[in-house]
Design a protein that fits this description.
The complex is a heterodimer of chains A (about 240) and B (about 290). Chain A is built from 10 helices and 10 strands. By secondary structure, chain A is of the alpha/beta class. Chain A has a single domain, classed as Rossmann fold. In chain B, about 50% of the residues are buried. In chain B, about 75% of the residues lie in helices and about 5% in strands. Chain B has one domain. The chains are: A alpha/beta (about 240), B mainly alpha (about 290).
């Protein structure tokens, strides 16, 4: 069976500087796949290509059998791909509730949206007490939960997460990791996770790709990669 | 005293509505619409034509002014501003374009409507008198309508899906795009709405102060002052800025009366000092 999401030989440029040179990535339905690698290796560019924020120059991106490269971001959200952008990016002056409702912008089933809101508040109870608070006044960890909840409001089949642990207290990183595992396991949402915290990413993913300057350097089962000597040296900082 | 406050509120209501349109376009598109005053003038002339000359009901004329400006705003966005924003990285480009549009509209308005000061018959007659307070009913009606439009605008932004989408887009355009907001479409809607608000105020005020082809520039300057006082791109700031400027003008005209025509001189100096202390205005965010 064809994978749920596949990128084939994708090339992406910012002006004249390449960000991705011939990247191929596949993700099966139900999987959690991690993209690890140093800053600037091209991890976020892969997500920007999938969501349509940047146009690819060559290659193909296919989601559930349909070519999606060339579609605009709004159309891609409608197909069932939601993204949690890097740096959280809540709508700071809007209430938590309005932020969550924005996540459901592409949906028109009012009853379904209400059910999703209940689910999200059940998953992140801390948001429940703060529905009327301006999102920008919350802590980094709470904002991260909010943006994950906001993405879930779109009822996606594929969730893209860009550096969810960045700038979040270590204790909260654990909470976020647990949430990602739960979302994948309980709701069957496939997850593509970009992380600089490679240790966390390899622990919670099934498979992983390691990027280096715009191409895939290594890939395999996360459980194997953790033990791989090169991965330990290059991505896990050697200290095991 | 009551008279000064009443005049300030009357001015403030119309100013706030002008500032709202300007700040909406800035928030959504990052465009400083230098042609805002000219759009106001155009709204005034549409009402002059429809209500003054064609003798149709005032409501019809006001709707015609709103529709004309909404279409003009949409066309300007779709064919000029959108193209320039896509091709140019520099913010000055849209500022120059907006200034060009202002000059073009000035010339077009002069050509079509001539240079004469134009007024229309009163929409309601009579004067409201209470204690030492004297207010013509038409001013009360105009201020009331302006406030009603402001309230309607806020409710729309706060509680409807398009309003929420526009607020989201103003706060984080990329994130809004990722939520599925068609940002190009809402840019067009916002521009049309902003232009429409300018036209509505022009259409309201032609019934009181009249309109002439030369007042576009000064109206734009006042609009920019209000937005700077309140903080650019913030709805609350635009409203606060509008009422503050209205009140300052009303108080200044009374208090500084004996010194000649110095109200705006004093307001400008006060504003420069204020902006030196608070460059982002009352509620503005330090925009990137």
């Amino acid at each position: 069976m064809a994978p749920m999401l596949s990128l084939e030989n994708v090339e992406l440029y910012y002006d004249h500087v390449y960000a991705l040179k011939g990247v191929s990535v596949a993700l099966e339905a139900g999987e959690t796949v991690a993209l690890i690698g140093a800053n600037g290796a091209g991890k976020s560019s892969i997500l920007r290509a999938i969501t349509g924020l940047n146009r690819i120059r060559k290659g193909a991106i296919t989601f559930e059998g349909q070519r999606i490269d060339g579609l605009d971001p709004a159309a891609i959200v409608k197909l069932g791909i939601a993204m949690v952008p890097e740096g959280r990016r809540v709508f700071p002056l809007m209430s938590v509730r309005d932020n969550l409702m924005m996540g459901a912008f592409s949906r028109s089933d009012a009853a379904g949206v209400r059910a999703s809101l209940d689910d999200v508040l059940h998953r992140f109870p801390r948001l429940k007490d703060r529905l009327r608070q301006a999102a920008g006044t919350m802590s980094g960890g709470e904002q991260q939960m909010l943006v994950i909840g906001r993405a879930l409001m779109a009822k996606p089949r594929l969730l893209l997460l860009d550096e969810p642990s960045l700038g979040v207290a270590p204790k909260i990183v654990q909470d976020i990791a647990r949430s990602i595992v739960a979302i994948n396991r309980d709701e069957g949402v496939s997850v593509l996770l970009v992380e600089q915290n490679s240790r966390m990413a390899l622990r919670i993913s099934h498979r992983a790709y390691a990027l280096s300057t715009g191409s895939i350097a290594l890939s395999g089962l996360s459980a194997d990669l953790v033990k791989d000597e090169r991965v330990q040296r290059l991505y896990l900082g050697g200290e095991v | 005293m009551e008279q000064v406050i009443a005049n300030g509120l009357y001015l403030g209501a119309q100013y706030a509505l002008i500032a709202l349109g300007l700040t909406l376009i800035f928030a959504l598109m990052n465009v400083l619409n230098f042609a805002h005053g000219q759009m106001y003038v155009l709204g005034g002339f549409v009402v002059y034509e429809v209500y003054g000359l064609m003798k149709l009901p005032f409501v019809v004329a006001l709707i015609a002014a709103a529709a004309t400006l909404a279409v003009l705003g949409a066309v300007l966005e779709r064919f000029l501003f959108r193209t320039v924003i896509r091709r140019s990285e520099r913010e000055e480009s849209t500022m120059l374009l907006a200034a060009g549009v202002a000059y073009f509209l000035d010339a077009a308005i002069l050509l079509i409507f001539g240079e004469k000061q134009r007024g229309v018959r009163k929409i309601v007659n009579g004067v409201f008198m209470w204690d030492n307070l004297i207010l013509p009913w038409d001013r009360i009606l105009v201020a009331g309508l302006a406030i009603a439009f402001i309230v309607a605008f806020i409710l729309m932004m706060q509680y409807t899906k398009p309003g929420r989408a526009m607020r989201a887009m103003a706060q984080d355009r990329t994130a809004a795009q990722l939520m599925g907001v068609p940002v190009a479409f809402y840019g067009l809607v916002g521009f049309a709405l902003g232009a429409m608000l300018a036209g509505l105020v022009g259409g309201l005020l032609v019934t009181i102060t009249g309109v002439n082809s030369g007042i576009g520039g000064p109206i734009s300057i006042k609009a920019f002052m209000m937005v700077m006082i309140g903080g650019a791109g913030v709805v609350g700031g635009a409203i606060a800025g509008g009422f503050i400027l209205g009140m300052l003008e009303s108080v200044g005209l009374t208090v500084l009366h004996s010194y000649g025509d110095v109200t705006y001189l004093v307001i400008f100096i006060a504003m420069m000092i204020f902006l030196a202390i608070r460059p982002n205005g009352l509620m503005g965010k330090p925009w990137g």
